[in-house]
Amino acid sequence: MTTLAAITNPWMHYLIWPVVKFSIAFIIVQGIVAAMNWIERRLLGLFQARLGPNRVGSEIGIPWGLGQIIADPVKFLLKEDIVPSSSEKVAYYLGPILPLVPAFIVFCLIPFGPPPTFAVTSNVNVGLLLILAMTSTVVYGIILGGWASNNKYSLMGGLRSAAQMVSYEVPFGLSIVGVLMLAGSLELEEIIRYQERNAWMFIPQIVACFIFIVAMNAENNRTPFDLPEAESELVAGYHTEYSAMKFAFYMLSEYSMMVVNCCLIVSLFFGGWTLAMGGFGLTTAVLKGWGLLGGLLGTLIFVTKVMTFMLVYIWTRATFPRFRFDQLMDLGWKFLIPLALANIFVTGIVVLAGGEWLLSVFGVAVIVAVVVFMMRKPEKVSRKVMHASPVSEA
Prior knowledge:
Blueprint: H1 2-47, H2 68-78, H3 89-97, H4 100-105, H5 127-135, H6 138-148, H7 152-183, H8 188-197, H9 206-219, H10 231-234, H11 244-269, E1 275-277, E2 280-282, H12 284-289, H13 292-319, H14 325-353, H15 356-375
Antiparallel strand pairs: 1-2
């Protein structure tokens, strides 16, 4: 029996149980992705004073147009799959698949609640580095799809995406350095534990948090950074020649990467599954003390934070117009990268001086200043009425 247990336990610990946990997380995440399609279209309709999808499914008693969530994948499955005759077939088929693989694998490394139960792989000491390495490979699928289509619009979209994603990978990575300097670890679990003992990272690293939010929008080619797609200029960009499920794969990878980035910002800057600062509140220890109920509560907290930032994605799309390409590059190279380097420099000096609390004071001051600025009453603009002078008859 002892020998049998020794043989069985490693399989349960390293393969079967992680696969079960990943499958559950994958189903939940893909459910969120499917729901976000309906939520985004409804919210955009609300922002733009229209209705959005509100009737699909009403014939069979499904309210609020929720049948759209089922109708979209069915539509993609039934549509004709058109392949351009002049395309590079192998690369053309690989294009939509390559972005999906890292977007799915990354969920193995993100803890959704108090480990070890609510994390597929716990104690990955270079987890964040591995996540950044895998997510940076998404650009290859987009470039490949744009080139293999043998279409100038697709190629332009792929090249734009390459330039944009490579450019914004730099501030995206640099914005995390300040967090790592304070937490002293690349492990997401340890970064979250540091925040519950001290303060959520968005307070001492408010500048880095701002850079991260801008860069993650650009990384996903979301409005106002949707230059690779640019429907008004490039028809549909790198996926112009894709139809049916291959087109759906591109959309699926985009929304999955949105969820990944929201999971990262929650873990790095907003306390992960905890509601605690300074060691007070719903810490990891408190949640673990409540057993399974505490773990589910921590997961609910994490998912709620993630969905909040998913809504920020939609809010940004509905608010800002698309940048010109030169404005896009200027923002990344001339503003965000110098700002991220300055944040690293200041953080390093403060950490070496042993005054980490000064960063929190600075962050609170910035947050208060922004709130005061946003709540101020608009100044009354005096409009001087100009009267036309009488025309001389002379």
